[in-house]
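Can anyone check this?
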Amino acid sequence: MKRNLFGTDGIRGLANSLPMTPEIALKVGMAAGRIFTQGDHRHRVVIGKDTRLSGYMIESALVSGFTAVGMDVFLFGPLPTPAVAMLTRSLRADLGVMISASHNPYHDNGIKLFDRDGQKLSDEREAQIEALMENGLTDGLAAPAKIGRARRVDDAQARYIEFVKRTFPKHLRLEGLRIVIDCANGAAYKVAPSALWELGADVFSIGVEPNGLNINEDVGSTSPEAMIAKVKETRADFGIALDGDADRVVMCDERGRIIDGDQILALIARSWAKTGELKGGGVVGTVMSNIGLERFLKSQNLKLVRAPVGDRYVIEKMREGGFNVGGEQSGHIIFSDFITTGDGLIAALQVLAVLAEDRRPASEAVRIFEPAPQVLENVRFTNGSPLSNPKVASAIKLCEQKLDGGRLLVRKSGTEPVIRIMAEGENEKLVRDVVKEVAQLIREAVS
């Protein structure tokens, strides 16, 4: 079955425009509720959201859909995506829902679904939901006495904070560490500073004043300059920048140098391999992972397995190969010993644990390999993917040959109307020239 609404990370789009309308959200609730109400027990769904203004609208529509088919709804309010995945399992819910467009601006929103184990739904399951949305919804309406109830869960944030703290080694504390935390005016604006403070750190918070319209605006993992400036201003030891739903993280050392997902994977792989905690003989990355990471892991007798872009595909590879560490360069890091999806705060704590154990500054401990020159550029389009144009495809192949052993990756984003271009090689000027040429080709194709 083909999916039209669901992309690589749920349904996403401009709020109050297709596909992110109340009507679609209502139908998602009804269809998903129908599929996940199997058996005679009282069925329940949990719903979290980030801080976007449109979250209220989408939440209300989802509640109507789920209760209409007989599901009880537990509402968390603003809470990170990984917290929703964790609480889906903890509360023995049949389904978990996160209302968020992650790192996108406030005017976008999205719907992500988790099964009872806290795993993102498979492509097949999402296709089933779409098929049911198109027809058959009225057949599953609950009888008047069986309509679901909805209520707020007041202790969801406290539950998640305690869960996160338990992933930090018991014999370590963060006393003496000055840490900047940038919450992107998003879902973690309360829980992230609290967790770090309770573990002993001196915490300097930014991006903790959401107003419904400022999520990811010049703050967070997509704008790390705010974190870097605060680290320098406060003379902090470490900086942490989350995205809008806190499932990804970018960090910086005390000098303000960026620590991306590849560096995190390298650090944790080396540390956990020494302690025997690393499983699978390496880590799972993506096609975007820098060749420098692969070379470093090889020097440690560890391997890098590449998955398509998207944390759900990283998780699939982790399951297939028995890995317990995986992630994306963009900062989605998955530690399957702790949680079923990417968690920016847990990833930051695992890095901090290494620093606390080694008693070394971040600048010495974290940047442990030199990445190969890699250039990224995005090109927006409106009608149809330009990659389906044979001339564009042929030109891209010729550009790849120019890199002489380097890598060129051109792909359509699964979350927004963007073509993402990545080139990598030993000659930085050549890499930049190739990316510029490909971007121009695509712009001409869509003009």
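Reply from J.R.: I decoded it. The chain has four domains: 11-154, 159-256, 259-365, 374-446.
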